Amino acid sequence: MKIWKRLSGWKGCRTREVDSMGERRMFSKTIIDSDNFLDMPLSSQLLYFHLSMRADDDGFINNPKSIMRNVRCNDDDLKLLIAKQFILPFESGVVVIKHWKIHNYIRADRYKETNCLEEKKFLQLNKGNEYVIGIPSDNQVTTIPQPSGNQVTTIPQPSGNQVTTIPQPSDNQVVDNRYTQVKLSKVKLSKVKLSKVKEDHKGPINKINYAEFVSMTNEEHQRLIDKYGDDKTNAMVDILDNYKGSKGTSYKNDYRAILSWVVKRYEDDTSINKMATKKSANQRVADGISAMELARELERKRDKNG
Fold first, then answer.
1. Whether the predicted pLDDT of 230 surpasses 60
2. From 109's CA, which of 3, 182, 216, 249 has a CA 20 to 30 Å away?
């Protein structure tokens, strides 16, 4: 099943027809519904869709970094797409959508060949209809079959006992290593871990200072209020603020610090204050009784002397 994406103008539920196939792109659910794709952060998925929408009719994009900046994605998103081989990079900076031929079937009368002819020479199609980077020999240039006339683009398949092979360089042929492998320096993921892609990979976390030394997100602060109330939350923030200010201590997450020990400190302090208040009240009562007894004693002495 294909999902149509149209960049043409929308008006209600109707679309404006356009003549150029370059204004329309399709996406195969086989690719975009795979775990390998859905495990990526949303920003990486978004960049893939934008690159695919702006690719030419052969799946090439000659300005991937400009598109990345325009849609507010970052280098890690681009590197992740390369590392997972959703796009294939070239030394020139051009990239190509690996599954382009799976996503799109373009009619011959609407097809316009890419301008990235040098990069296209190094592309081949495997049995799964995916682009792979090969090495053409001296006397052979590997090209992607193109439609002619009204013919629909098809992928040649081996017949009989024929085995499809990828051309290899001869013994005396000099191999350009630039196209034999993707350099590791270009696909290092500075902070993105493929084994554990976090859901919250959406940019920097905005924290608010609720005291001089205490900061947390608005959601974390609201969770404290919902659980403990305004007064108790403010008191616990003050406890943590005074502690960090006096000790010079810092925490990776002030919200977690409050849950781990500040709540107990607040409850202990509250219990001690209640005990002190009760003892003070009892002492005042005792002091009042002593004063009354002293007054009565003085009164008896005056009566006796009088």
1. yes
2. 3
63 vs 16: which has the higher pLDDT: 63
CB distance 79 to 102 below 8 Å: no
Q: What is the DSSP string of 82-123?
A: HHTTSEEE-TTS-EEETTHHHH---BTTT----S-HHHHTTE
CA dihedral 122, 125, 127, 133 (to 10 degrees): 30
Q: How far apart are alpha carbons 228 and 236 in whole angstroms?
A: 10
| Alpha carbon distance 102, 1 (integer Å) | 11
Which bin fits 68, alpha (ψ -120 to 50), beta or left (φ > 0)?
alpha
Q: How far is CA 284 from CA 179, 222, 277, 287, 294, in A?
A: 90, 41, 11, 5, 15
Q: How far apart are the C-alpha atoms of 243 and 76, rounded to whole Å?
A: 38
Cα 183 to Cα 180: distance, rounded to the nearest angstrom: 9
Tell me the C-alpha distance between 136 and 45, whole Å. Answer: 32
Neighbours of 239 (CB within 10 A): 19
List the beta bridge partners of residue 132. 124
Instruction: Give this prediction's pTM.
Output: 0.42
| Degrees to nearest 5, angle at CA 166 with 160 and 168 | 135
Please write the tens of the pLDDT for every residue from 61-94.
999 999 999 999 999 999 999 999 999 999 999 9
